[in-house]
Write a structure and sequence with these properties.
Elements (H helix, E strand, L loop, with lengths): L3 H17 L1 H30 L9 H13 L6 H9 L1 H10 L16 H15 L7 H11 L4 H14 L3
Length: 169
Protein backbone atom coordinates (compact mmCIF):
# COMPACT_ATOMS: atom_id res chain seq x y z
CA UNK A 1 0.00 0.00 0.00
CA UNK A 2 1.31 3.44 -0.90
CA UNK A 3 1.94 5.70 2.09
CA UNK A 4 -0.05 8.83 1.12
CA UNK A 5 2.13 11.21 3.14
CA UNK A 6 5.29 9.88 1.50
CA UNK A 7 3.59 10.00 -1.90
CA UNK A 8 2.69 13.68 -1.49
CA UNK A 9 6.20 14.49 -0.26
CA UNK A 10 7.58 12.82 -3.39
CA UNK A 11 5.16 14.80 -5.58
CA UNK A 12 6.28 18.04 -3.91
CA UNK A 13 9.93 17.16 -4.54
CA UNK A 14 9.17 16.29 -8.17
CA UNK A 15 7.27 19.56 -8.59
CA UNK A 16 10.19 21.53 -7.16
CA UNK A 17 12.70 19.65 -9.29
CA UNK A 18 10.47 20.01 -12.38
CA UNK A 19 10.34 23.79 -11.93
CA UNK A 20 14.12 23.82 -12.19
CA UNK A 21 14.38 21.05 -14.82
CA UNK A 22 11.40 20.77 -17.18
CA UNK A 23 12.50 17.32 -18.38
CA UNK A 24 11.81 15.89 -14.90
CA UNK A 25 8.04 16.16 -15.39
CA UNK A 26 8.36 14.50 -18.80
CA UNK A 27 10.27 11.61 -17.23
CA UNK A 28 7.69 11.20 -14.46
CA UNK A 29 4.84 11.30 -16.98
CA UNK A 30 6.64 8.65 -19.03
CA UNK A 31 7.15 6.49 -15.95
CA UNK A 32 3.42 6.72 -15.23
CA UNK A 33 2.55 5.64 -18.78
CA UNK A 34 4.96 2.70 -18.59
CA UNK A 35 3.55 1.69 -15.20
CA UNK A 36 0.04 1.82 -16.65
CA UNK A 37 1.03 -0.35 -19.61
CA UNK A 38 2.78 -2.87 -17.34
CA UNK A 39 -0.35 -2.91 -15.16
CA UNK A 40 -2.49 -3.79 -18.18
CA UNK A 41 -0.21 -6.72 -19.06
CA UNK A 42 -0.16 -7.86 -15.43
CA UNK A 43 -3.98 -7.78 -15.34
CA UNK A 44 -4.21 -9.86 -18.52
CA UNK A 45 -1.66 -12.35 -17.16
CA UNK A 46 -3.52 -12.63 -13.85
CA UNK A 47 -6.75 -13.37 -15.73
CA UNK A 48 -4.85 -15.99 -17.77
CA UNK A 49 -3.55 -17.54 -14.55
CA UNK A 50 -7.12 -17.89 -13.25
CA UNK A 51 -8.27 -19.89 -16.28
CA UNK A 52 -5.01 -21.59 -17.21
CA UNK A 53 -5.66 -25.17 -18.40
CA UNK A 54 -9.34 -25.08 -17.38
CA UNK A 55 -10.06 -27.18 -20.47
CA UNK A 56 -8.34 -30.07 -18.65
CA UNK A 57 -11.32 -30.03 -16.28
CA UNK A 58 -13.80 -30.82 -19.07
CA UNK A 59 -14.32 -33.60 -21.57
CA UNK A 60 -12.68 -35.06 -23.49
CA UNK A 61 -9.55 -33.99 -21.66
CA UNK A 62 -10.39 -34.91 -18.06
CA UNK A 63 -11.12 -38.59 -18.76
CA UNK A 64 -8.10 -39.08 -20.99
CA UNK A 65 -5.69 -37.22 -18.71
CA UNK A 66 -7.00 -39.17 -15.69
CA UNK A 67 -5.70 -42.33 -17.34
CA UNK A 68 -2.42 -40.93 -18.62
CA UNK A 69 -1.00 -38.31 -16.23
CA UNK A 70 0.90 -40.72 -14.00
CA UNK A 71 2.42 -42.60 -16.94
CA UNK A 72 3.19 -39.35 -18.79
CA UNK A 73 4.93 -37.83 -15.76
CA UNK A 74 7.19 -40.87 -15.65
CA UNK A 75 8.59 -40.06 -19.09
CA UNK A 76 11.33 -37.66 -20.08
CA UNK A 77 9.98 -34.67 -21.98
CA UNK A 78 10.30 -35.08 -25.75
CA UNK A 79 11.73 -38.61 -25.45
CA UNK A 80 10.47 -41.38 -27.76
CA UNK A 81 8.31 -42.67 -24.87
CA UNK A 82 6.87 -39.20 -24.31
CA UNK A 83 6.07 -38.75 -28.01
CA UNK A 84 4.40 -42.19 -28.07
CA UNK A 85 2.24 -41.25 -25.08
CA UNK A 86 1.30 -38.01 -26.80
CA UNK A 87 0.01 -40.02 -29.77
CA UNK A 88 -2.13 -42.07 -27.39
CA UNK A 89 -3.76 -38.95 -25.93
CA UNK A 90 -4.03 -37.04 -29.22
CA UNK A 91 -7.79 -36.42 -28.88
CA UNK A 92 -7.24 -34.69 -25.54
CA UNK A 93 -4.21 -32.69 -26.62
CA UNK A 94 -5.86 -31.49 -29.84
CA UNK A 95 -8.85 -30.29 -27.80
CA UNK A 96 -6.48 -28.67 -25.30
CA UNK A 97 -4.42 -26.88 -27.92
CA UNK A 98 -7.56 -25.56 -29.62
CA UNK A 99 -8.83 -24.08 -26.34
CA UNK A 100 -5.61 -22.54 -24.99
CA UNK A 101 -3.74 -19.55 -26.41
CA UNK A 102 -0.49 -20.53 -24.68
CA UNK A 103 0.06 -23.45 -27.07
CA UNK A 104 1.74 -22.78 -30.43
CA UNK A 105 -0.30 -25.63 -31.91
CA UNK A 106 -3.38 -23.38 -31.72
CA UNK A 107 -2.04 -21.06 -34.40
CA UNK A 108 -1.55 -21.74 -38.12
CA UNK A 109 1.79 -19.86 -37.89
CA UNK A 110 2.74 -21.72 -34.70
CA UNK A 111 4.84 -19.77 -32.24
CA UNK A 112 5.10 -16.89 -34.74
CA UNK A 113 1.32 -16.38 -34.43
CA UNK A 114 1.44 -15.88 -30.67
CA UNK A 115 1.34 -12.67 -28.65
CA UNK A 116 3.83 -11.63 -25.99
CA UNK A 117 1.23 -12.51 -23.33
CA UNK A 118 0.81 -15.97 -24.92
CA UNK A 119 4.58 -16.43 -24.81
CA UNK A 120 4.85 -15.44 -21.14
CA UNK A 121 2.10 -17.88 -20.19
CA UNK A 122 3.68 -20.59 -22.35
CA UNK A 123 7.08 -20.08 -20.71
CA UNK A 124 5.53 -20.30 -17.24
CA UNK A 125 3.67 -23.43 -18.36
CA UNK A 126 6.94 -25.00 -19.50
CA UNK A 127 8.49 -24.23 -16.12
CA UNK A 128 5.56 -25.73 -14.22
CA UNK A 129 5.57 -28.77 -16.50
CA UNK A 130 9.21 -29.53 -15.63
CA UNK A 131 8.09 -30.01 -12.03
CA UNK A 132 5.76 -32.85 -13.08
CA UNK A 133 8.62 -34.95 -14.44
CA UNK A 134 11.21 -36.59 -12.19
CA UNK A 135 13.94 -35.44 -14.55
CA UNK A 136 12.31 -32.15 -15.60
CA UNK A 137 14.76 -29.51 -16.76
CA UNK A 138 13.69 -26.15 -18.17
CA UNK A 139 16.99 -25.55 -19.96
CA UNK A 140 16.59 -28.85 -21.86
CA UNK A 141 12.90 -28.11 -22.47
CA UNK A 142 13.78 -24.77 -24.08
CA UNK A 143 16.21 -26.51 -26.42
CA UNK A 144 13.74 -29.29 -27.26
CA UNK A 145 10.97 -26.76 -27.86
CA UNK A 146 13.26 -24.65 -30.03
CA UNK A 147 13.36 -27.59 -32.43
CA UNK A 148 9.75 -28.70 -31.90
CA UNK A 149 8.27 -25.26 -32.55
CA UNK A 150 10.88 -23.96 -35.05
CA UNK A 151 11.79 -21.18 -32.66
CA UNK A 152 14.29 -18.56 -33.69
CA UNK A 153 17.69 -18.52 -32.02
CA UNK A 154 16.80 -15.10 -30.66
CA UNK A 155 13.58 -16.22 -28.95
CA UNK A 156 15.24 -19.33 -27.53
CA UNK A 157 18.03 -17.14 -26.14
CA UNK A 158 15.47 -14.77 -24.56
CA UNK A 159 13.81 -17.76 -22.87
CA UNK A 160 17.19 -19.02 -21.66
CA UNK A 161 18.18 -15.57 -20.38
CA UNK A 162 14.86 -15.37 -18.54
CA UNK A 163 15.33 -18.85 -17.07
CA UNK A 164 18.74 -17.88 -15.77
CA UNK A 165 17.64 -14.50 -14.39
CA UNK A 166 14.77 -16.18 -12.49
CA UNK A 167 17.12 -19.01 -11.42
CA UNK A 168 14.65 -21.59 -12.68
CA UNK A 169 15.98 -25.08 -13.18
Amino acid sequence: MIDKVEHFKELAEVSKLASEHPSVQIVYDHKAEVASAIGIIIDVLLKRAEVHDDSKLEEPEVSIFDKSFKKLSGTTYDSPEYREMMKEIKVATEHHYAKNNHHPEKYPAGIDGMTLVDLVEMFCDWYAATKKHADGNLEKSIQANKIRFHMSDQLAEIFENTRQSLQWQ
